[in-house]
Specification:
Order of helices and strands: EHHEHEHHHEHEE
Low-confidence stretches: none
Shape: globular
Mean pLDDT: 96
Number of helices: 7
Radius of gyration: 17 Å
Structural class: alpha/beta
Helix content: 25-40%
Number of strands: 6
Strand content: 15-25%
Strand order of the largest sheet: 3-2-4-1-5-6
Distance between the termini: 32 Å
């Protein structure tokens, strides 16, 4: 028997996503396109019986969850630990801008993102630790149930790395597009990913 069915949703698109800017923990809202994506995702999820919903408290994730839950009478439980990785001074910048302004720090981070943080930001080790901790929190008490988690690419990838026993530094191999759905069945023996980065509803 499945212990928990976990539905992992990345928030809808923002203007910064479209412009390829590092968002991190900056509270960037959904764009009109992101809201449209969230509404389409709501239709996709109508076939699921969801028992609990947890979301990052950043507005792009919170609003995605609220749109998904519209008309249900249910509000998401907001969990600050589900926030995106902090990129510190790099938030709001594109990769080419970071490369020009912080070349040495960027090289060091790329070489060892697990232990090296962006200036004023956090390491992958820190993100991994809090993501694994929050996974335990959102699945506790939900045996035999379906749990929806609406968050960001960083923590969702770390949760998947943990469940699939993948080294955190390989997180980039797991593609998670805006408004994508990933479904994982958690058994006592381990996790089975049934759906990864599903965007067919878009």
């Amino acid at each position: 028997m499945v212990s928990v069915r976990l539905l992992l949703v990345r928030h809808g698109e923002t203007v910064w996503n479209a412009n390829q800017r590092y968002q991190g923990q900056r509270d960037v809202p959904l764009s009109p396109e992101g809201r449209r994506q969230a509404r389409q995702l709501r239709e996709r999820l109508r076939r699921e019986t969801v028992h609990a919903v947890y979301a990052s408290d950043l507005s792009r994730a919170r609003e995605t969850a609220e749109i998904i839950l519209e008309g249900s009478g249910v509000a998401p439980t907001l969990v600050p630990e589900l926030r995106e990785m902090s990129f510190g001074a790099w938030e709001g910048m594109r990769h080419d801008e970071i490369e020009a302004a912080y070349p040495e720090q960027l090289r060091a981070w790329i070489a060892d993102p697990v232990n090296v943080a962006p200036p004023g930001g956090e390491t992958l080790a820190s993100l991994f630790e809090r993501s694994v901790a929050v996974l335990g929190r959102v699945t506790a008490g939900h045996d035999g149930q379906t749990v929806l988690v609406v968050a960001h690419g960083g923590p969702l990838r770390m949760i998947l790395c943990h469940l699939l026993e993948v080294r955190p530094e390989l997180y980039w191999r797991l593609g998670l597009r805006p408004a994508s759905l990933t479904a994982v069945d958690l058994y006592p023996e381990g996790a089975i990913v049934g759906v990864l980065n599903d965007t067919c509803h878009l």
